[in-house]
Amino acid sequence: AEDGIRDFCLSRGLGDVYKRQTQSTWGYYLEAGELYEKANIPSNAIIMYEHLRDWDRILDCIHRFKSEFKDEDRKALVKKYIELELQKIFREYEDANNKSREEKAEEELPVIEERLVEHISCEDSGIEAVSYTHLT
Q1: Coil, strand or helix: which one is 136?
Q2: pLDDT-derived band of residue 103, with 50, 70 and 90 as boundaries?
Q3: C-alpha–C-alpha distance, residues 113 and 101, integer Å
Q4: Model pLDDT for residues 62-87, shown as the tens digit of each residue
Q5: How buried is residue 2: exposed, middle or buried, by Cβ count under 10 Å (0-12/13-18/19+)?
Q6: Angle at CA of residue 67, ends 65 and 72, nearest 5°
Q7: From CA 135, how far away is CA 123, in angstroms rounded?
Q8: CA atoms within 13 A of residue 103's CA, in its CB half-sphere
């Protein structure tokens, strides 16, 4: 706006900026990581894959280049990235579980709507409404 204050409705927020940035830069991080692996520089590849939050790819990289790491460092890295990968898998499981609940709710919604319509039409006609609470 002219007074230096951004128009709220035009502001997309940091989430949109992040999404646009990630969509355009993810490919670069992936390509850079793969090039670092080909150049036998796994530590830089891991840094690139961290930007992608691709913990599985990092674990594969650590495994392929295990001789490049001190034993204790490798074990610490494996522990760190296994924990992150498990957290990611758990979130995906929860999301899928929540989605299936939403889908189930969408399936149940028409039945509920039908019951409401029956109840409303009974009230309009003066007929006593039937209780459906025993069905839930």
Answers
A1: coil
A2: low
A3: 18
A4: 999 999 999 999 999 999 999 998 88
A5: exposed
A6: 105
A7: 20
A8: 6
